[in-house]
Design goal:
Elements: E1 16-21, H1 29-42, E2 48-53, H2 59-70, H3 76-100, E3 105-108, E4 115-117, E5 126-129, H4 132-140, E6 143-147, E7 150-153, E8 158-161, H5 166-177, E9 183-187, E10 208-209, H6 211-219, H7 227-235, E11 240-244, E12 253-255, E13 266-284, H8 291-300, E14 307-313, E15 316-324, H9 328-338, E16 343-358, H10 364-374, E17 378-383, E18 387-392, H11 397-409
Helix pairs in contact: 1-3, 2-3, 5-7, 6-7, 10-11
Length: about 400
């Protein structure tokens, strides 16, 4: 990814802290007032604040529902036009609330700050962040509020969105480009836990986590941090702090540094991803040029394939993946459109558990225990040094989560 604000601007910025507030944090006017007061109390001179906001409450889901009532598959360009209004409303209201608290504040859309993307509606990639307007505003205002989740395609001048949860990505991209000291992300949870505490009561809050572990965890389905935001923070070595907007002074989870190399497995956290299908497709070797386009197609569906493997047997390629069940029919249709010689070897509904940490390639005892406990419910197991993925039948997903968490954390 080419970067961002030009190096010549680095020295003219005041010191900056970036905050991001999710939808529940700004769900109504009282919550917006509380966020404004928290910013005033915590971002003190000489610091300036850049605040990224999501849409209020369930705005995005509600307006998506309205669009779906009009069209079974609404055009993605029009969805981007519709859904980006939510973040704009929140940004303007928060700027007004900050002004009432005595702070000089100004709000911007993604296009107004020059967040330039490709043309992929619904899941656009950031190409560049032009910084002139942001730089000028940080000289004249205490707080700049930015509507998250959105950018603009400079070729067509169309509004684009960065995918669900894309406000995290906006915040991290801004923090990296502005050389902020850190990026604080406020959610409706206290931080990142060893597992979902709503399902595993013994789950423990993680105080520190490496960038690599955050990348693996978010890629594997954890909802606390957007997976592309985690990758970007890792790339630019940007410290992150995940906190609860309900307890904004709490410990939270700090993400920075690198994972240590250990001789034995080290467990960080466990997450799961539901409503997936474990799909096996066999293609002729001549279709190898399709592999990149297949992966790109999945990306454009706003999906991150938990599993993607290709193996070769003679003149055939076996493409194994786990994708959203809702994407399966369109995925298979896309493959058949590109290649007439296609065989489907299996399509098994699955829930994927991902154990993140390090040293799993040396953890034979753990692998044996997992296999022994899951028996007939085990669909596949993939072992990498930093992540261990276990695919189980959906009806066994919750029990498997509890079992695996118990094996690792007691």
């Amino acid at each position: 990814m080419p970067l961002f604000i030009e190096e010549r601007m680095r020295d003219v910025f005041p010191p900056i802290i970036v905050h991001k507030y999710g939808g529940t944090s700004v769900a109504d006017l009282e919550r917006i007032r509380q966020v404004a007061r928290h910013i005033v109390q915590t971002v003190l001179p000489p610091y300036r604040a850049v605040i990224v906001v999501s849409a209020m409450g369930n705005f995005t889901d509600e307006w998506m529902g309205l669009a779906s009532q009009l069209h079974p598959e609404p055009p993605r360009r029009e969805l981007d036009m519709l859904l980006t209004t939510g973040e704009r409303i929140t940004a303007a209201l928060l700027a007004i609330a900050l002004e009432s608290e005595g702070k000089r504040a100004i709000s911007f859309t993604g296009s107004q700050i020059g967040l330039l993307t490709d043309a992929t509606h619904g899941n656009a990639k950031i190409h560049r962040l032009a910084g002139d307007r942001m730089q000028q505003s940080l000289q004249t205002h205490d707080v700049v509020v930015v509507a998250g989740f959105q950018g603009v395609d400079p070729q067509r001048k169309d509004v684009t969105t960065l995918g669900r949860g894309g406000s995290d990505l906006t915040a991290v991209a801004l923090a990296a480009s502005l050389h902020a000291e850190r990026c604080e992300i406020y959610k409706d949870v206290e931080g990142i836990y060893t597992a979902d505490p709503r399902k595993i009561p013994t789950a423990q809050l993680i105080s520190h986590m490496s960038w690599e572990a955050a990348c693996e965890l978010s890629w594997s389905g954890a909802q606390v941090l957007h997976y592309r935001a985690a990758n970007l923070a890792n790339k630019y070595q940007l410290p992150l702090l995940i906190r609860s907007s309900w307890q904004p002074t709490g410990q939270g989870t700090r993400i920075e540094g690198h994972a240590s190399i250990m001789e034995t497995p080290h467990f960080v956290a466990l997450t799961q991803k539901k409503d997936l299908v474990h799909l096996g497709i066999v293609l002729p070797m001549e279709a190898s040029s399709l592999l990149q386009s297949l992966y790109d197609w999945i990306w454009k569906q706003d999906d991150s394939p938990v599993l993607w493997q290709v193996r070769y047997e003679g003149a055939r390629m076996h493409v194994e993946t786990c994708i959203k069940t809702s994407c399966q029919a369109k995925y298979e249709a896309y493959i058949r459109e590109k290649c007439t010689e296609v065989q489907k070897s299996y399509a098994t509904p699955v829930t994927v558990l991902s154990l993140v940490g390090s040293g799993f390639t040396q953890g034979g005892g753990l692998l044996h225990q997992i296999t022994e406990n899951l028996t007939e419910n085990l669909v596949f197991m993939e072992v990498q040094n930093a992540v261990l993925r276990v695919g189980v039948r959906p009806e066994a997903g919750e029990a498997a989560m509890k079992m695996l968490h118990s094996l690792c954390w007691g």
